[in-house]
Amino acid sequence: MTAGDTNLLGTVHGGVIMKLVDDAAGAVAGRHSGGPAVTASMDEMAFLSPVRVGDLVHVHAQVNWTGRTSMEVGVRVMAERWNESTPAQQVGSAYLVFAAVDADGKPRTVPPVRPDSERNERRFKEAQIRRTHRLARRRAIKELRAQEPDES
């Protein structure tokens, strides 16, 4: 990270980290789905500790869950000092939902994710919980807005 990436506090701006997260997640989603995938939502972006100028940042992403045309990608952000031999530490994490699209921007089917370990099975189940919560929140907000009087 360079001085151009910093915020007013002198640490790396959260938006810079979010772009790295979105880029890595998009690459993984596109690779898994075999073509273009667009960001539909970002959940739970957590900044665990600041990233400093000079830090080497590593972004790890994997598809945790797939639906018919969408997929959840989990992302872990790690940082290490460029001039120290200490191990990288986790500095952030996020969950993003991507929709696979065809050349016309229409949804297309994605291959299923097949958890191959207990850890990936846990990630798959947690992703299902997050999806249930996202859909319930969307439904509740839509119902609340439907109760508002028409402003026209």
Write the layout of secondary structure elements.
Blueprint: H1 14-33, E1 37-47, E2 55-66, E3 70-81, E4 89-100, H2 118-146
Antiparallel strand pairs: 1-4, 2-3, 3-4
CATH homologous superfamily classification: Hotdog Thioesterase
Number of helices: 2
> From N to C, what is the helix and strand string?
HEEEEH
Strand content: 25-35%
Biggest pleated-sheet summary: 4 strands, antiparallel
> Globular, elongated, flat, extended or rod-shaped: what is the shape?
globular
Radius of gyration of CA atoms, rounded to a whole number: 18 Å
Order of strands in the sheet with most strands: 1-4-3-2
Residue-averaged pLDDT, rounded?
94
CATH architecture: Roll
Structural class: alpha+beta
- CATH topology call: Thiol Ester Dehydrase, Chain A
Question: Distance N terminus to C terminus?
Answer: 50 Å
Q: What's the level 1 CATH class?
A: Alpha Beta
- Approximately how much helix is present in the residues? 25-40%
Count every beta strand, where a strand is a DSSP E run of 2 or more residues.
Answer: 4
Catalogue the unreliable spans: none
> In total, how many domains does the architecture comprise?
1
Structure overview:
With 152 residues, the chain is an alpha+beta fold. The protein has one domain (3-113): Hotdog Thioesterase (Thiol Ester Dehydrase, Chain A, Roll), CATH 3.10.129. 32% of the residues lie in helices and 31% in strands. The chain contains two helices and four strands. A hairpin with a 7-residue loop joins strand 3 and strand 4. The chain is globular, with a radius of gyration of 18 Å.
